[in-house]
Design a protein that fits this description.
Helix 2 packs parallel to helix 5 and helix 8 (203-253) runs parallel beside helix 11. The chain has helices at residues 3-11, 19-33, 53-67, 96-102, 124-138, 157-169, 190-200, 203-253, 261-272, 278-282, 291-314, and strands at residues 34-38, 44-50, 73-78, 83-90, 106-107, 111-112, 139-141, 150-154, 175-179, 182-187. The longest helix is centred in the C-terminal third of the chain and has 51 residues, at 203-253. The strands form 3 sheets. The chain has a 4-stranded antiparallel β-sheet. A 4-stranded antiparallel β-sheet has the order 7-8-10-9. A two-stranded antiparallel sheet has the order 5-6. The chain is of the alpha+beta class. This is Probable cell division protein WhiA.
C-alpha cells in the first residue's frame, strides 16, 4: 500500500466533530472527484471514480447517512496496472437536486457553484472536514523517505483558490499551479505537511512523517561529521607530507644532531609516523606533548630553515 493510500485509509476512519462536518466532507469528495451530469429541468446524476477503496467507502457511507440516496457501486480491475477502480453512480432521483444544493455544489437556479461553499464551513471543524474530503478525493502525498511533497488536484480556479485559503486558515502555506485545465494545490514544507495531516485527523501519518524527518536529520548529521573528518584527514595528510619534506631538507642543511632535543624528537617521530595527526604524534613524545606544543615545534623548524636559507643567501 502506498503512503497516500495509508493516509487516506486513516482519514476514512476519522469522525466529524459536529453534524455539519459530514456535509462538508461529502461536499468536497463529490466536488473534487465527481462528475455531474444534467438532463432536463432538475434532472441530475453523478459519477464518482476513485482508485482508493477508503474514498469509495466514505462516499457511500456519508451519502446513505445524510440523504439515503441510491449509490450503485461498480468495482473494475485493471490487469495492466494491477489496480482496482471504484465507480459510484448516483442516478437521477427526485431529491438529488435539493441534496446537491444542501451540499453547496449547486446554486438554486444558477447551476454549479464556482467556489468553496462557505455556508458549510461555519465552524473550524467543518473547514478541517472539507479539507479532509478534498484530500481524500484528489490528494497525493509522497513517501516521506524520499521527499516531502503533498498536493491536491482540483478543477476550477475559484474552487482551487478557496481551498488554498482554507489551508491558510489551518496555518499551512500552499501554492497553486495550473496543470492542463486543472489546478494542483501543493505543499513542500515538512512543517506544513505535518500541520495539515494533523488538522485533517491523520495523526498517525503525521507522526510517521516526523519520525522519518528525525532519521533524515540524524543521517545528515552523521554524513556531515564523516565528511568533516575526511576533510580533516586530507588536510592532516597533506601537512604531514610537507613536514616530512621540510625535515629532509633540514637534515641536509642543519643536521638532526644539531637540533634542540624537542625539535629532533619531533623530526624523528614525524618521519617514522607520516600518517599520524599532530595530536596523536604528541602522545608518542617522552613526556607526551599537546597538539599545540607539536605545532609550535613545526613553526620552530620552519624558522630554523628560514634562518639557514638567509645565511646561505648572504654567503
Amino acid at each position: 500500500m502506498s503512503f497516500t493510500a495509508q493516509v487516506k485509509d486513516e482519514l476514512s476512519r476519522v469522525d466529524g466533530e459536529c453534524p455539519g462536518c459530514a456535509y462538508a466532507q461529502l461536499s468536497a469528495i463529490t466536488r473534487v472527484c465527481g462528475t455531474l451530469s444534467f438532463r432536463g429541468s432538475g434532472r441530475y446524476s453523478i459519477r464518482v471514480a476513485t482508485e482508493t477503496g477508503a474514498v469509495a467507502r466514505t462516499m457511500i457511507k456519508l451519502t446513505h447517512e445524510l440523504f439515503e440516496l441510491e449509490t450503485p457501486l461498480t468495482v473494475r480491475h485493471s490487469n495492466l496496472h494491477k489496480t482496482r477502480n471504484y465507480l459510484i453512480e448516483i442516478p437521477e432521483q427526485d431529491e438529488l437536486e435539493a441534496d446537491l444544493i444542501r451540499l453547496g455544489i449547486l446554486l438554486p437556479g444558477q447551476g454549479v457553484a464556482p467556489g468553496v461553499p462557505q455556508e458549510l464551513l461555519g465552524s473550524p471543524c467543518c473547514a478541517r472536514s472539507f479539507v479532509r474530503g478534498a484530500f481524500m478525493a484528489g490528494g497525493f502525498i509522497a513517501d516521506p523517505r524520499g521527499d516531502f511533497h503533498l498536493e491536491i488536484a482540483v478543477t476550477g480556479e475559484d474552487f482551487a483558490t478557496g481551498v488554498v485559503e482554507l489551508f491558510q486558515q489551518l496555518g499551512v502555506k500552499a501554492r497553486l499551479n495550473r496543470r492542463r485545465g486543472s489546478f494542483a494545490i501543493y505543499v513542500k514544507s515538512f512543517d506544513d505537511i505535518v500541520t495539515l495531516l494533523t488538522a485533517m485527523g491523520a495523526r498517525r501519518s503525521a507522526q510517521a512523517v516526523a519520525n522519518v524527518r528525525r532519521v533524515k536529520s540524524l543521517k545528515n548529521d552523521v554524513n556531515r561529521r564523516v565528511n568533516a573528518e575526511i576533510a580533516n584527514q586530507a588536510r592532516s595528510t597533506g601537512a604531514a607530507a610537507d613536514q616530512i619534506q621540510m625535515i629532509a631538507q633540514a637534515e641536509k642543511v642543519i643536521g638532526l644532531r644539531s637540533m634542540p632535543p624537542a625539535l629532533r624528537e619531533f623530526c624523528l617521530l614525524r618521519r617514522a609516523n607520516p600518517d599520524l595527526s599532530l595530536a596523536a604524534l604528541g602522545q608518542r613524545c617522552n613526556p607526551p606533548a599537546s597538539k599545540s606544543a607539536m605545532y609550535h615545534r613545526v613553526l620552530r623548524l620552519q624558522r630554523l630553515m628560514g634562518e639557514a636559507d638567509g645565511s646561505a643567501n648572504e654567503q
